[in-house]
Queue: 4 jobs
Job 1
Amino acid sequence: MENIEIKGSAKQPDVLFNGKTGELEIKGRSIPENSYQFYEPLLNWLDKYASTPCPNTVLYFKLDYFNTSSSMYILGILKKLEKIFLAGNKAEVKWYYPSDDEDMLQTGEDLKQIVKVPIEMIEVEEED
Amino acid sequence: MNTEMSMLDIHRFYEVMGEEGVLISYKGHLDGGVIDMLTQLTEQKLAFARTRTKVKKKIVNILVEAIQNTYFYLEYAKEKNISVLKDVTTSFFLVLAQNDYQFALFTGNKIDNKQAEKLKERVRVVNELSEDELQDFYIKSINKDELPTKGGAGIGLVDILRRAKHQVSFQFDDSHSDYTQFSILVQVPINGE
């Protein structure tokens, strides 16, 4: 299947979904006014990918900012990963948060409560 | 117009803004481009003021959520044609100010009286929630099977209260017959603690 490559902007994150390696990455900021328009193609791609996933799927979240409407879609993406995981495939999420960003840590912890796919919290140093 | 007098007024105006610690002040039309501009300007101003990263992020997140709340309301009002006010779509205002102890974000807009009643009730409900209850409310709200095809998640206020740890004041000025002036004031300690 085709990969997804989206270059980020002031409002939208960089996205790199590689269907051949199973490495998926969302990076940057996600504060669009219309999250549906941005995330719907990603959710559709994951639906297709879930039918024949790679032996190991890893989703990297490296977000600086996101708004509440994005958070619903981020959860939507995690639920797709959960489906892959519950079908007996190897799948995991790596949630990066800056050491000084308690809100980003909290959101990762919140999402962990909702989905069953393993989420690893990874602290990264951020200089003031 | 007395040009000399106007120039003096402008200088005085900026002196007052400086004395009050105003970093950003905007009033008028709101669209995606204005949201981008205000977000970027806020980041630049906060970086210039050597604001701690965690405080900068908190303020930017709250600011985006507050502005987009207004944006979605104005879009909704336009679509439903519920606003009879000519200037409701340009009533948006935003002020970000700073003193030695905290940042203050003051923003709002005019809203239709009927909508104001609904918003007042929503504010009353979420404002009474404890931090843990807000957290539960937030998780339940984002965990929906049906995702919205437009607009926000409807939990902007909850997110603001959650991030600002209740340092938020809401005001509904209904002294005008044909609209309500809605304002929100969020205070963020300068050290983020």
Note: Chain A has three helices and six strands.
Job 2
Amino acid sequence: MRVTQDSLVQSTLNRLQTRLNEHQDVSTKVSTGKAWQVPSDDPARANQSLVLRADEHARTQQQRNAQDAESRLEITDSTLQSMNDRLHRARDLAVQAAKGTSDESERTAIADEIDEIREELKSLANTRHAGKALFAGYTDGPAVAFSPEDPEDDDELEVAFKGDDGHQIDRKIGPNETVRSNVTAAEVFAADLDDLDDGELNAENTFSMLHDLAVDVRAGDVDKVSDAIGDIDDAQDRLQSAQSSVGVAHSRVLSALDRSERDLLAVQKERSDVEDVNLAEAIMELQTQEVAFESTLGSMARVLQPSLMDFIR
Amino acid sequence: MSNISGLHTAATGLKTAQTRMDTAAHNISNVGTDGYTRQRVETAALSPQQTVNGPVGRGVEVTDIGRLRDAFLDERVRTTGAGAEQATAHADVLERAERVMGEPDDGITEAMATLWDAFEDLANDPSEPATREQVLGALDDVARRFNTADRDLDALAEDVTRQIREHVDEVNGLTAQIAEVNEQIDQTGAGRAYPDLADRRDHLVDELSELIGARVADTDDGSHRVTVGGLTLVEGSRVNALEAEEDGSIEHQASGQEVPAGGRLGGLQAALGHEDDEGYASLHALRNGLDGLADEVADQLNGQHEQGYTVGDGESDPSQGDDLLQGAGADADNGGAAGLAVAAGLAVAEGLQPSDIAAAKGEEGGPQDGRNAQALADLRDAPFTTDNGEENSEESESGGETIDRQLRELVGGLASSVSGQRRTADNQASQAAIADEARRGEHGVSIDEEMVDLMTHQRAFEAASRVTSTIDEALDVLINRTGVVGR
């Protein structure tokens, strides 16, 4: 092939341009820390990165959901524990009253304490966590309401529950895992959920039972009080089964949190593998490019300089 | 044979050497001229004079000053050059479109991910007004990113159409210049001016070929004809003008036919595409894809939202969810162009209040019921289906794809088409560079060569001068020194 000044200059310029382009590519990688700048630099990896980003978003959100469920379940659990303690005390009092050895003032004191326990259980059932009623299901509460509010001995205590076993507040804690993060007052305190009619319950429930117990204690009806001990046991069973289901949910949430932490780290690492540049490699490449660029400049200076003019007079 | 004829013979040598030196000077002067072809003086011995001693040579004459031009190299440069221009122009536009999309950091995917998170936060705490505000904000962001992407793609298409118009004007300018040069060449005929005019014409055709992929066609009558895809642009001094249409197509005015342009114009046209294009290789196709996606987003979100209920307060009863998103084309399902304005007009439904978001699943749901919000968030992993499964994966328009996946398909498709087009462009450009280098080598001036020529011709000139003075001396002896015996 014939070589002229023009073709020499042009081809050297072309080569210089190519070198500069490659140099720029590598130095952009090093300065941004990204292996590709726009998806078209590496469509396959860009697509992978989009998948991983979506995954990361979802998992971060699931972690947040799990944390929310964890705090709800923790409060629920400790509240249920307090309820259990109260019921336990009520049982002790009932046992004491059932002995029939107490005089009237002692019976009144026991009955008053049982009334007190009933009120405490009510306010525990109406616990609010971050402004939301814990035991009221989907509703805004209160979970438990008495009518009349402050019953006399000859009153029949009616209890209105809000929320039932259908009001499951689920939290998505993993890609295919949801956990129930609540329990309703009806489930804890009502004997038979089928009797729930539009939230109103006249049939058996812990509160009415305690009210009746206090009335019986005051009246000194030892037989009825003895019978009531069995009812308190039933109430405690219900509470404990609620407690255990909350406990199971809590431990599921904890293990999901643990797992999601690990998964999230793995996803983040994978995303970094897909998106980020291997710095050591890139810097080596940058140096290679620099050497190549300088050599191109050097050879350009040598090739373009001489002509016949330098040698003839 | 007379001595006088020897003087004449030497004179032809002098004159030829002079012409050769002139031409070398011309070549060296034009060493940097783009499109210049080195010229060479062709000479021939003059026909001999018949004498009694037989034929005696009469010297030399210049038969031609010609260009050392290779038409095949021209053809190669033009074909590869037009191809490179076409692929590069196409790739450049697509690259700009990719930047408009702003993926993965500032694109629609990021806004969608934020929206899913917002729905899930709402599900966690449906009674908190802040989570509802957050959902509204995220919806607005999604809609805006669709609007912006569509608007920017539209502006890009506008810009490409404008470029096409300007380039067509350039083409018309170039064809007019070529016709002018043709006329000059016809008038001049063969002579000193011819090679430089031919260079000028070739250079103009080069430019024309880069712009529109023009070729020089052979004609029977020897006139110069430039064509694009069989349509004549210039023949001799006659020009056929082109006109750019609104939609980016180019009309050949003489025949009324559409010009199958190559070169940069062809690349721009391909990047612009046609209105009903699908895929990711043109701006029209991208906008159609974006519209389809916007429609899908509105359909899926609105569809799921309608399954839920708002929470009534003292004044209003719980009601079924209304549209979350609206688009200018969303209600124009009957028209063929229904989708066209969707991405541009996508917006949060007018008058949508935070309390209008249907987070609850049942009518009796209550303020803590976030089941529909969770269902909305779950659209991130599964496409929308109605409760009775009516719009299941086979029958739905989306083909059972999640929004995220369709979005990724758009981004990935565009990325592949950009990188493919860029690779083609790089390939073509390196081929064009090789062809161009070869032509510059063949056509260009080599200073060394010209210097050697110059010295050769200098010596020839000196020798011819010496011949003249030698004959002059001989005549001097004959005229002034002969027959002077005894003077």
Note: Chain A has a mean pLDDT of 89.
Job 3
Amino acid sequence: MTASTETLHLQHADHQAHADAHGWRRWLYATNHKDIGTLYLWFSFSMFMLGGTMALGIRAELFQPGLQFWHPEFFNQLTTLHGIIMVFGAIMPAFTGLANWMLPLMLGAPDMAFARMNNWSFWLLPPAAALLVISLFVPGGAPAGGWTLYPPLSIQAGMGMDLAIFAIHLLGLSSIMGSINIVTTVLNMRAPGMTLLKMPMFAWTSLVTAYLLIAVAPVLAGAVTMLLTDRHFGTHFFKAAGGGDPVLFQHIFWFFGHPEVYIMALPAFGIVSQILPTFARKPLFGYVSMVYAVCSIAILSFMVWAHHMFAVGLPATAQLFFMFMTMLIAVPTGVKVFNWIATMWQGEMTFETPMLFAIGFVCLFTVGGFSGLVLSIAPIDIQMTDTYYVVAHFHYVLVAGALFSLFGATYYWLPKWTGQMYNEKLGKLHFWWSMIWFNVTFFPMHFLGLAGMPRRIPDYPLQFTDFNSVASVGAFCFGLGQLLFLYNVINTIRGGAGRAPARPWEGAHTLEWEVASPAPHHTWEMPPDEALVKKGLRAQLLDQDHE
Amino acid sequence: MNAVAHGANRRTAIRLGLVALAMFSFGYVLAPFYDVLCRAIGLDRARPEFATAIPTALRLEFDTNVADGLPVTIETLDRVVAAKAGGLVKARFRIANTGDQPLTIRAIPSFAPVRAAGLLQKLECFCFDALKLAPHETRDVTVVLLVAKALPEELGAATLSYTLQPA
């Protein structure tokens, strides 16, 4: 016992030394999960701004038919980079950042399992982002064949493609290490008394997401490595001229790509499952079914990849299999939506900004889910493939889904991070502004897609003009509104609406609210005692034995 | 963190790292095994035995419509016919003028799917000419089709539709 106490003291001294690092050293050498979480979140926000600016470039060109601003080649570079940056640079790191910040606090662990690996996971991201940006300025420009990098275009493209491939290698490595860290932390470092089926839902969804990433990020790394060797080292994986098969790339890519969809959706489910009970002042409805739903979505996600390839020409048997498996995912997703609504049912709801974003998420994600169900029907999908209907669908699940949950999470935990309350009026304005302009931007895209407008084109026939103009106006308003969010966050860091108590939301019962606000640099160096853990579990009705 | 916990973390991390490595090779394994797998579970349409297989029958469905406001009815007497490769198909329809005026009408034919048109040759059709109908006259008309000798495997069924319009 004495020995271990001594080590604790020694470690404490060691930690103090870290905390004392100031200026750039604090961030470059960061091993503290909160510092690294902060780095992830700022990085992903700046990527969100970069990818968003590219989106505005796209919408500016599409405001009117004809070519106004860009050459078609550059337009295609914009759509490609916008996709890659938003998926790998904005949404994924934001969830990893949240997991870094919140998991140790929620589980009662002193830090993430591998602090130095954590540092490396983060610091691989800025070079990857730099490679993507540099690719715009090399001969031939950035990759322009879409974020899915299908051959033959990706084999024929200029050196920008090589930079993108290396960027994806770095991003993949970062994701894999980040995920190993998350799984290890969740599995091995929970406070005594917190068994797996008593964890907060955000911990569950982060765990399952991390497993998915460990399983599929290497598959993507393999696919782009094959592209690289096809391009430069004489292999013929995907080159038809040498006996390769371009369709094979699509199989491998979507074997990664479909679980990737849930990598961006599951953590959002977790966040919403934290926020809704807090502001409905009721425990989460159907906790265990939520866990099973998350797990079954994850397992099913490996068996549906070819629904992205209906138009490629699959045998009817394969089309039917992938169509039915895809439709099956609606069942666990339906369970989740039902449980969220049941959580709010007869709750004492209040509508602070995090709650607004969570409810907005439930409504709009369901719309995106339904358009996904429409697309899962093979004969309809063959008609809709590569039209704006698909663009509308995935922006409903990724913007109103993943992004709205991230805004909700930020407002929810900002008092814990900064120790100050954010400006509620501005927060609500940000929500309603985003909600309205999001729909103005993306709802017309359903109509455009149904009318046959293809995606990834800089010019279009005249009959598509009206809806495109509406979408462009919506996009610029939506984009400008995000500056409100930035202002609100900075303002909160600088004092905001006054000091936040340790538990600013009286309906919140998870462990992160048991530490002071702002969360001290080191928390749970001694695991929380079992009575404290039990108290929180009792409030969430998780103290019974349901395992 | 004590030594026991540290060891457990290391073991978990190594296991997960191995999973990542295995999945990296999985993509490469797909390259040679993708074709083999498809053939093994019978999902490969490019198999030579499929290419030469000649299905014996094509399901033909007949559909009829009447333009708005036209006082005419049309009834399909043979709704569904099994067409043998290389055989003749005859389908009968009953057209009636329900109005008190004599009428001249024409049937506009169409096919779904379109490629079925190349497989079915119309020898005789009531759609070739305009039809003159006296008030309250009922008349039976026919379509005779010659079916191609080889039918593609995946076609399965074709629909022929006739819409009656004023001539």
Note: The first helix of chain A runs from residue 2 to 20.
Job 4
Amino acid sequence: MGLVYFFPILWMFLTSLKTELQAIAIPPLLFFEPTFENFTLIQERSDYFKHALNSVATSFGGTAIAMALAIPAAYAMATAPGRWTKDLLLWMLSTKMLPAVGVLMPIYLIVQKLGLLDTRLALAVIFAMVNLPIVVWMLFSYFREIPAEVVEASRIDCRRTRDTIRHVVVPLGWGGIASTALLSVVLCWNEAFWSINLTAADAGTLAALVASFSSPEGLFWAKVSAVSVLACAPIMVLGWFCQKQLVQGLTFGAVK
Amino acid sequence: MMRGRLATALQAPSVLALGAWMLVPLSMTLFFSFQRYNLLYPERSGLAGFSNYEFFWTDPAFGPALANTLLLVGSLLVVTVVLGLALALLVERAFWGRGVVRVLLVSPFFIMPTVNALVWKNMFMNPVYGLFAVAAGWFGAEPVDWLAEAPLLSLIIMLSWQWTPFAFLIFITALQSLDAEQAEAARVDGAGYWSRFRFLTLPHLARPIAIVVMIQSIFHLSIFAEIFVTTGGGPGYDSTNLAFMIFSQALLQFDAGVASAGGVFAIILANIVAIFLIRMIGRSLVV
């Protein structure tokens, strides 16, 4: 049953190892002599590495920005909850419900006016904003579990809050920070809406590259599959390792 | 305790950034929606009143798009929750190779939406070479051109494949925190599988189910990549949803005014859903 469900991915992988003729053979071939030529062809024709590099840069860049903003905020919310903390968290959650299409036009125009259309910087900033609510929520739920006494004691030892964050919160919350970052990278990597709409030749990510194969000439199945495998494999493997964190992050800490 | 001012200072960057990210484009969308504004004809500008709304409202795509949006969200919710729950219950019991099965079941969720769409479009739903067509041939049936004849159903199939793992993942995680002793006690007391499911498992899963519904609604209200890659909203408007309709107004027809009016509409729709969801579920998350 698991295999049946997994089959489309397996099939994609198999197809990527076929020649174009084998890929559309009828009946479909399950056994064949594998070839790796698609992978090399892809690099030559559509510059896979450039897109991959864009994906890496925007995912990690966006994650870094989001983390830099979120760690102090989540720390403050978790250790010194005020009257507004609850409302603030809910408000952040609600921004997630804002449909991206609703603000497509303004964002497009702003980015255009700033001359940042088709740049990695613009995409990274947007990724950061899109994921910020999830990142804050997830960090908040991790930081809340650091015992209050430890934080309290360190606050007496370290006079400055910056030191407390650096020497106590970050080391203790390291697991939480790492898995939050991981989740954020996964989400950025797979993001398609903004990548397709705001990038072209220069800053196109893998998601945009794959989308460009949707045109009729995309009937080169083996090559499409090769790109897809390369685009998905790293994230799928990452995903396998962070299932638990994923659940916690995507449910805003409600299911652990 | 940390002083209040410091706490505020630490939270300020996030709040301000997020506030700007939300408010600036929102107010611009609102502003544009009352303006005559086409990127192709910058000289034709000025106040448009409600004409953009009227234009969007009376667009022949509007009715189908709205219906398709709701239909997609609704059917996806039903399919993924039921299927995800069934799979989670099956996998919950210990058996040999469970870890592997779990990994296999979860994997589709990590696939890029654009890849997901292409795999299904080419390798399964292609009317000549696709596996579905080949399978139909084995049974002597006429192959179906899925994306042309049943575009919405095709989208539901590929999206369910991608999102059932999400529901499954959350349900199985929740199931594993179910009190095993309680279940055992119920079994000893003579409760059958169904009554245990009905009175023990289902109440335990109420919150996870609510959360799955909430999060999937957020994502499914603005499905875009899959439509962009597979059907392009067609044939006709058969698979156009609101997100895709606004996209085509904005970046294919360059009409910023009408696209913004559509954006306002999408935001209102999302907010109606969001208010219900936050009321229902959001509050319980924070405690």
Note: The radius of gyration of chain A is 22 Å.
